[in-house]
Write a structure and sequence with these properties.
Largest sheet: 6 strands, parallel
Helix content: 40-55%
Bound molecules: cobalamin, iron/sulfur cluster
Number of strands: 14
Distance between the termini: 48 Å
Number of helices: 19
Radius of gyration: 22 Å
């Protein structure tokens, strides 16, 4: 069976990092882990090819080659997915779809032959058996959420790893919290399931064998969802890292209560975690309460951020405006918080009701739902009727983005972050010396010569060199990412 695995295109969003990636000569941040995992679950005898449309076009010859096409997508890729399905059906190919969008938006994908709802560890082997006896069903949904012991090592070799800036691995699925807007707990459940230490280390071995060095993103929605197991993993991870000469630097996502646990923080520092994404959402307690985000109300959020930074980890964070309880001065308060927290990468979005979430159900009951979300919470579109005047909300949102990504504000946060985050060794590098120099030259040319804000760039670089010479590579990386965010902000502000 010739199997074509297709990952549809993302729009140009904050998360695409496209403007920053081009400096490194890369087109995309991560290969599609869902499809690499699905590929590893297929029978050995099946031939496979991957087309990640974020780095290469889907050619008619790819479709013609295939007997069956597997596609995976998030909601934000839905338009591209729809086109992929149409193209493949025009060639009369069997099309199988899965992933988060298929799970929550399957009703819109009527053209696909087979739809996988949720995780595929138990349903994919069932589908292969059904297909072989000519009785494959249209919908596959697992009766229960699978234990991750059934998850194989992803087929990393299927992707051309050199085209990406980082590699993804997954340790756990699910999160114990119950934030109202969150679809993770609907898709992956509230009981975090983890892989074993052996599974995780085997995945890292596989990445190492595939030639990878550099950043590895542990894509869990909440890496510390199962604290007991994570505390067992971290020493093994630190030990693996030392034995292999620290080839990887880790990034992950975690809930804010990470700051309450020194043992975890210390374990993460030893295991080479350098960046962590937190769901902070808002400094307004009434809005956090409305979002059922009790874990963010317990302590002082600014203090929590500072504490995590003191363990050598840069904090990135998500922020949201549009809660019913947001006060009139919410926009100024978010700007102030982001400034004081020294979080360079602040992903501010408008509240979005994703399908099948508690928020979706409440807004539906209240008659406030408008349409399905675009999936991109930074494009300035609202899919529900907010309490605040909608125009004021969207304008206020844009004003936050303009303020926090103006060069002066951004570079100051980056410098404050470099000051606070002290790591005991440099980050693992993916590129060799020559490509590092090329990257630096491209950044200097774009930000230091062509950009109208070049004065701010050189002021930042000279301050970074005087105060944080040993972190020069970090300072340059932050400048590149800041440039990406500024370019997109200019886009949403017209
Ligand atoms: C890594 C990640 C990213 C990476 C994507 C990298 C990449 N190339 O894949 C980055 C950081 C770029 C990203 C960005 C965004 N992301 Co994202 N992301 C994730 C995250 C944390 C992990 C994805 C992953 O690798 N999972 C591990 C794999 C193994 O799991 P899986 O994909 O679910 O695959 C399993 C099954 O679904 C199934 N399966 C998957 N595909 C297929 C296909 C077939 C044919 C079959 C049979 C089965 C199958 O089999 C697998 C094994 O069981 C998920 C959360 C999560 N827990 O999955 C969010 C998530 C997918 N992202 C989400 C969102 C909303 C976004 C953004 C829109 C955020 C934003 N507001 O801007 C952006 C959009 C991207 C862009 N450029 O604009 C949502 C999607 C919601 C939805 N219903 O579609 C999720 C669920 C998180 C969330 N709740 O916010 N993301
Ligand atoms: S902490 Fe994050 S992953 Fe967990 S329920 Fe809240 S938003 Fe979802």
């Amino acid at each position: 069976m010739k199997t074509l695995l297709v990952y549809p295109e993302f729009p140009d969003t904050y998360w695409s990092f496209r403007h920053a990636l081009s400096f490194e000569g890369k087109r995309s941040a991560y290969p599609p882990l869902g499809l690499l995992t699905v590929s590893a679950m297929l029978p050995d005898a099946w031939e496979r090819r991957l087309v990640d449309m974020n780095i290469q076009p889907l050619k008619p010859s790819d479709i013609k080659w295939a007997d069956v096409v597997f596609a995976s997508a998030m909601i934000v890729q839905k338009e591209s997915l729809r086109r992929v399905v149409e193209l493949c059906k025009a060639e009369d190919k069997r099309v199988v779809i899965g992933g988060p969008y298929a799970t929550s938006g399957a009703k819109h994908l009527s053209q696909a032959d087979h739809i996988f709802l949720g995780e595929a560890e138990t349903t994919l082997p069932e589908f292969v058996r059904d297909l072989e006896r000519g009785a494959a069903k249209r919908i596959y949904q697992a009766a229960e959420r699978p234990a991750l012991s059934a998850t194989p090592i992803p087929d990393f070799n299927l992707a051309d790893l050199r085209r990406y800036s980082s590699m993804p691995v997954q340790y756990s699925r699910g999160c114990p919290f119950q934030c109202e807007f969150c679809d993770i707990i609907e898709i992956y459940g509230r009981v975090p399931r983890t892989k074993s230490n052996e599974q995780m280390l085997a995945e890292l071995d596989a990445l190492l064998r595939a030639g990878w060095r550099g950043t590895v993103f542990i894509v869990d929605d909440n890496f510390i969802g199962n604290k007991r197991n994570v505390k067992r993993l971290l020493p093994a991870l630190a030990d693996w890292s030392e034995r292999h000469g620290r080839p990887f630097t880790f990034i992950t996502e975690a809930s804010v209560n990470l700051a309450e646990d020194d043992e975890l923080l210390d374990g993460m520092r030893r295991a080479q975690f350098r960046r962590v994404f937190l769901g902070i959402e808002t400094p307004v307690k009434a809005s956090l309460k409305e979002a059922q985000k009790g874990q963010n109300i317990r302590g002082d959020l600014l203090h929590s951020v500072r504490k995590i930074q003191s363990y050598g980890m840069e904090v990135m964070a998500g922020f949201i405006v549009g809660f019913d309880n947001d006060p009139d001065d919410i926009f100024e308060r978010q700007i102030e918080f982001i400034r004081e927290s020294a979080i360079p990468l602040a992903m501010v979005g408008l509240l979005t009701a994703l399908p099948d979430t508690q928020l979706w159900r409440r807004l539906e009951r209240e008659g406030r739902l408008l349409l399905e979300s675009t999936g991109n919470n930074t494009d300035g579109s609202l899919n529900f009727v907010p309490k605040m005047d909608a125009t004021r909300l969207v304008e206020g949102y844009k004003s936050i983005m303009r303020a926090i990504y103006s060069p002066g504000e951004y570079y100051q946060r980056a410098l404050d972050c470099l000051e606070r985050v002290v790591a005991d060794s440099p980050e693992a590098r993916h590129n060799n010396f020559t490509s590092d120099v090329m990257t630096l030259l491209r950044i200097a040319l774009a930000l230091g010569v062509r950009d109208r804000e070049r004065g701010e760039f050189w002021r930042y670089i000279s301050r970074a060199l005087t105060r944080h010479r040993e972190k020069f590579a970090e300072a340059v990386r932050l400048a590149a990412v800041g440039y990406h965010f500024r370019k997109l902000t200019e886009g949403i502000n017209g």
